[in-house]
Amino acid sequence: MAAPLALGLIVAVTIRAALFRSSFADLIAERVEVVSPLNAWKRVVEGLALLDLGVSPYSGDVFHETPLVIYFFHFVIDYSEFVFMIADGITAVALYLAVRDYNKIMFRKQKYALEADRYPHDVVELFRTPKEMYYIPLKVALFYLLNPFTVLSCVAKSTCGLNNAVIALFILCTIKGSAFLSAIFLALATYQSIYPLTLFAPALLFLVQRLYIPVSLRSPSFWILAVQYGVMFLGSLAIIVCLSFFLLSSWDFIPSVYGFILTVPDLTPNIGLFWYFFAEMFEHFRLFFLCVFQINVFFYIIPLSIKLKEHPVFLMFMQIAIISIFKSYPTVGDIALYMAFLPAWSHLYRFLRNIFLVSCMLLICSMLFPVLWHLWIFAGSANSNFYYAITLVFNVGQILLVSDYFYAYLRREHHLTHGLYLKKKDGSEATLVLK
User: Fold this and answer.
1) Contacts 24+ apart (CB under 8 A), 403-406
2) Does some domain include residue 435?
3) CA angle centred on 188, ends 184 and 189, rounded to 5°
4) Cα(418)–Cα(372) distance, integer angstroms
5) Does residue 197 register a pLDDT over 70?
6) From which residue to which does the signal peptide run (predicted)?
7) Total domains, the chain
8) Percent of the chain beyond pLDDT 70?
9) Residue 18 lies in a domain
10) Residue 188 CB contacts under 8 Å (≥ 6 apart), including other chains
11) Labelling 98: which of 5, 63, 149, 383 has CA 20 to 30 A away?
C-alpha cells in the first residue's frame, strides 16, 4: 500500500503547488469559509512584523495565534508553502497508520468473538472481511489529501492544517498505545485551540481497553491509569504554556488567544453558528447565550462517553465532528479532518438513512457560499440573512450526517448482539427505533 499512498501524496502536492502559483491563491486566502480571524495567514504575517519590530504581537487586536506558532514561522516564513504541504502529508500518513492499526485491532476482536460464538448466526453478513478492510486506510488518507476543503485550506495557508496534523498525530499515538506521546500531542492540540480538551475521554477509554482494564468507576486500575494520563496531559500542557511565557516574557497571549476563542469578540462572517447570532444579540444577554453556545462542544462528550464507552475510536470521530460544527471560529479545514474518517465506517453504509440528502445539502451549500457572499458584499442585492441562512443549512447537514452515522453505528451493534432479523413475540418482523 506504500506505492498508492506515495502516488496520492505526489498528486496532492502537485495540485497544491499549481494552485499556489495560480491567480486563485490570493482569492482563496480571503475566503471567509477557508480562513478565520484565528488562523488567517495575513494575521500571522502581521504578528511576525510586530515581533520583528520588538513589539508584542498581542498588543493589537489582529494576531490571535499561539506563541509557539509565531516563533515557528519566524524561522520558516520563507518556506511557508512547503510547511503547509508537509503538514497535510503528515496528517494523511498519520491517519493512514492509525486506521490501519485500528482495523487490525477490530479484526482481532471480531475473530475472538467469533471463536467464542458470541454472535447470533444470522449476522455473518455484517462481519468485516480482510479484503474489505484492506483499502480503507488508503481511502482515509486520500479522502483527506484530495478533499477540496483540505486543498483550499492549504492554499490559503490556514494554520488549521497544523492543528489537524497535531490531532492526527494524537490519534495515531493513542491507537498505538503510547500514553505519554498521546498526552503530549493532546496537550499541544488543546494549547492551540482549547476544544480538543474533550478528546481526553475517548483517548483514556481506548488506552484503558487496550490494557484490558475494565471501564468501571469501581476499578482501581482504571483510576490509576486515568490519574497517570491526566498528570502527563496537564504536565505537558503546563510546560508548553510556561515555554510560551518565557518566549514572550508576558502572559498577554492568554486573553488574546483563549479569551478570544471563548468570548468571540470578532464577528467576521464564517461558516459557524456564532457570528450572526451575536451580531444581533442585545449586550445584556450576550454572556448567557455565549455560555449556552460554548457549552455545546464540552457537554456532549458526557452522554456520548457513557453510550460509546466500548467504542472509543468512534467516540473520537464523533467529538471531532462536534468540535468542527460548534466551535466559535470554524473553517472548512476543520470539517475535512472528520470527513476523512468516513471511509473507516464503510461497514455502516447499509444502515444510513439520509446519506443522499445530506450529501446533496453539503455539496449545494458549498457551491452557494461564494455566490451568496458575492450577492451580499459586491452586488448589494442580498444581505447577511442570505449568507447566514446557507450557513445554517450547511450546519444542519453536518448534524444530520453525524447523527446518521451515530444511529447506524448503534444499530449495527444492536444487530450484532440480538441478530440481524428481529422478531416480535408474535413472530412478525420487528422495527428498530433509536430513542
Assistant:
1) 404/352, 404/353, 404/354, 404/355, 404/358, 405/317, 405/318, 405/342, 405/345, 405/348, 405/352, 406/318
2) no
3) 120
4) 49
5) yes
6) 1-25
7) 1
8) 96
9) yes
10) 166, 170, 236, 240
11) 149
